[in-house]
Amino acid sequence: MRLGLAGTGRIGTSHAETLKSFDEVSSVVVADVDAARAQAAAAKLGVEAAADIPSLFASSLDGLVIAAATDAHPELILKAVDAGIPVFCEKPVAADIPGTLAVIDKISGADVPVQIGFQRRFDAGYAAARAAVATGDLGWLHTLRATTLDPAPPPAEYVAHSGGLFRDCGVHDFDVVRFVSGREVVEVYAVGTNKGERFFVDAGDVDTAAATLTLDDGTLAVVSLTRYNGAGYDVRLEVLGSAGNVVVGLDDRAPLTSVEPGVQPLPGPAYPGFMERFRPAYVSELKTFLDVAAGRAPSPCGAADALEAFYIAEACEVSRRERRPVRVDEVRV
């Protein structure tokens, strides 16, 4: 297979390296709006570089991976689908709900697969939790507790264009709550606060937040988010049922310290960030994309799934601003 990759930043370069490692991939072509960055990445990885994005689309591709800036996602997705090229795109589909709906509307009649990158669905722990729920081993669920706790904030420039903590960060937790539970979120109540850098306030964002989600069967989910977890990168999910429970992310590198007598500390070190924590999941989702692009499997996470997670994030943002519970149906367009 000959695959293209648009966007050679940190995650794009990592994806290109992963794609190159697959036996089924004969060649990888990368491109970026910054041609020099694409050339540098290609030289480092030993792959091809297209002169620009139009040249990338003219490279006889069997599939396209999009890791460009968010505002480029809609155009690249649509261009790939119009060209009959199977596409994998990092979340989100677009920067807002109307943009996402516009993309979904335009690709709905096309017979070209689109896979959106929610890598936690391909993490072994989240997959095992989903299986435990599906088999009934946990009984009926009463609570899910999800955390995404970053060790340090991203740059001010990133925050200003990120869409906010719920849309940029919490959306992964919202997606896996749906994925693991098999249920839909019907109502949210969210709060947020700022105790760190001023640029969060300037962007209308928060650096720490919590949301209570009510699922369509009455199960409750609590999502905790922060940009300031000094102990290290901490992403976990507790799934609690009437007959048992499971925990995702509780391994030797979880940045947790017990103060109970006689309890030994976890050996660590903590994961420095999401790329290290979810490295196997990123590999697995791209491997799956090869099957999708080759027509051997349907897309495991389409644009409609991304939209549902985005609706939850949008409802949380409205709830935070207006200090009230918000039905997810309120933000549906």
From TrEMBL:
This is Inositol 2-dehydrogenase. Keywords: Oxidoreductase. Residues 2-117 form the Gfo/Idh/MocA-like oxidoreductase N-terminal domain. SUPFAM superfamilies: Glyceraldehyde-3-phosphate dehydrogenase-like, C-terminal domain, NAD(P)-binding Rossmann-fold domains. Residues 126-246 form the GFO/IDH/MocA-like oxidoreductase domain. InterPro entries: Gfo/Idh/MocA-like_OxRdtase_N, GFO_IDH_MocA-like_dom, NAD(P)-bd_dom_sf. The keyword Zinc does not apply. GO terms for molecular function: nucleotide binding; oxidoreductase activity. Transmembrane segments: none annotated. It comes from the Bacteria.
